[in-house]
Each structure stands twice: as C-alpha cells, then as structure tokens.
C-alpha cells in the first residue's frame, strides 16, 4: 500500500487546541498526485511507486513518452512499497491518505545560507573578547598540529557552504488533512523555503 505523497510548503501558522493551547503548524499543499510507474522486484530489482506532481509547461519527447498521456507533471518522485499489487498506473493519490493524529516523516531541501563561518555553521564560541584579542572574536582557533601529522585532518569543522542539503524531520503529528483543499497541517517546522518541494510519508514508510 502506498505510504507517501508529494507536496509543497506553504508556510507556518498557529492553531488552537480544544483546551486553548496554541501549536505552531506548517501548512503543506499535498497532491493530488498520479501513479506514473510501478516498479517490481522482478524487473527493476526493488518495489516502488513513482508519483507525478505539479504541472509542467513543456516536456521533452522522452518525458512525454514516459508519462503516457497521464498528464504533464513537473516532478517525479519514488516511494518504496511492500506490496505493489494494490497500486495501478493512473491511480490518484491525495491527502486522504492521512488522518488527524497520524505521524509522518517530511523530507525536503534545507534553506541555503551561502558561505558561513564556524560560529554560524558549527556554533563555535569564538575567541576571547579581551586580553589583546582584538580581531579573533569569530575565528575557529587551531585547526591542527605542526609536524605531526603535518596536515589538516579530514572532517575538521571549518567555514564553508551551509544549508541546501536533503533533510528529513521524523514523527511529526498531523493536525488536519483536507482533501477538498489538498491541505495538510503538521505540527512543527519542516525543511526548506516556502514553496519548496516536500516528500511526506507515514512514519515507518520508505522513500
């Protein structure tokens, strides 16, 4: 059975529980998606379902051949499944897959921060603010020894590009699933910028 769907991040807001408590939630427009391809262990070596999401303005000839008149989809993503017998090419998938109280894993690309120093990137404390240290406040300090080993070891935390990586946040609670509006509200924050592409799957489901 299919366990996931493709969506886009709309942004964050807050809602009130019945007891009056407020909760920060992320609004996601999820689906509708179409099943483009069913992959089997006999043919592809693993079991998965490929979903299509979003409308593409134009497609190349190989893409049109792959979609087989199912629609002009901009994004194609795969979700692992245990049983492909229950899924058929052309099936429609929407947020009715989830219900209030479910736990989901959300995967996206984190916000890109550009080139960042060690204080922002790795939460270093920086150098001393006194005793003659006038220009070392945000520097990393020593990055290695001298003759032995005579090099900077791999994995040393240093300045560099920050963000823009695939991130998965697990076990988020579903507050609301509205198939009529293709709207999904989940507790807490999810990776990425507004309008960023997300993969939402039930906790424990593969992707």
For this entry, give a set of tags:
207 residues, 12 strands
Brief description of this entry?
The chain is mainly beta and 207 residues long. The chain is built from 2 helices and 12 strands.
N-to-C SSE series?
EEEEHEEEEHEEEE
Cross-sheet strand order for the largest sheet? 1-2-11-10-7-12
What can be said about the biggest beta sheet? 6 strands, antiparallel, barrel
Helix content: under 10%
Shape annotation: extended
Architecture overview:
The structure is a single chain. The protein is mainly beta. Helices cover 6% and strands 41% of the residues. The strands form 3 sheets. Strands 1-2-11-10-7-12 form a 6-stranded antiparallel barrel. β1 and β2 form a beta hairpin. The longest helix has 7 residues. It is extended, with a radius of gyration of 23 Å. The mean pLDDT is 89.
Secondary structure layout plus pairing:
Layout: E1 4-16, E2 22-30, E3 33-39, E4 48-55, H1 61-67, E5 73-80, E6 92-93, E7 103-109, E8 114-116, H2 118-122, E9 160-162, E10 166-178, E11 183-187, E12 197-202
Antiparallel strand pairs: 1-2, 1-12, 2-11, 3-4, 3-6, 4-5, 7-10, 7-12, 8-9, 10-11
């Amino acid at each position: 059975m299919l366990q996931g769907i493709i969506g886009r991040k709309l942004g964050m807001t807050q809602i009130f529980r019945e007891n009056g408590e407020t909760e920060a939630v992320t609004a996601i427009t999820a689906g509708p998606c179409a099943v483009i391809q069913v992959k089997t262990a006999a043919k592809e070596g693993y079991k998965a379902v490929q979903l299509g999401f979003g409308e593409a303005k134009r497609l190349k000839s190989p893409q049109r051949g792959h979609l087989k008149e199912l629609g002009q989809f901009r994004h194609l993503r795969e979700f692992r499944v245990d049983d492909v017998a229950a899924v058929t090419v052309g099936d429609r998938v929407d947020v009715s897959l989830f219900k209030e109280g479910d736990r989901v894993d959300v995967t996206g690309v984190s916000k890109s921060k550009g080139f960042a120093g060690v204080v922002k990137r790795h939460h270093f404390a920086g150098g001393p603010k006194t005793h003659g240290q006038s220009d070392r406040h945000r520097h990393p300090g020593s990055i290695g020894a001298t003759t032995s080993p005579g090099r900077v070891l791999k994995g040393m935390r240093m300045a560099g590009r920050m963000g823009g990586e695939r991130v998965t946040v697990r076990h988020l609670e579903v507050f609301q699933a509205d198939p009529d509006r293709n709207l999904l509200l989940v507790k807490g924050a999810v990776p990425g910028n507004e309008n960023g592409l997300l993969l939402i799957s039930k906790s424990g489901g593969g992707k």
